[in-house]
Amino acid sequence: MVFNAVVETDPALRLWTSLGFTILATVPQAYEHPRHGLIGLHVSHRAL
């Protein structure tokens, strides 16, 4: 199994989901983005 963390505003989020990753949870305000301020962090999972 593989875990991954991706910020909410990352355009590659579609890529991760297309590769079979499922978002398990979102941690609110877990990442301080230089332009967007505090944003959520998606924790995703994919079984191998």
From TrEMBL:
It comes from the Bacteria. This is GNAT family N-acetyltransferase.
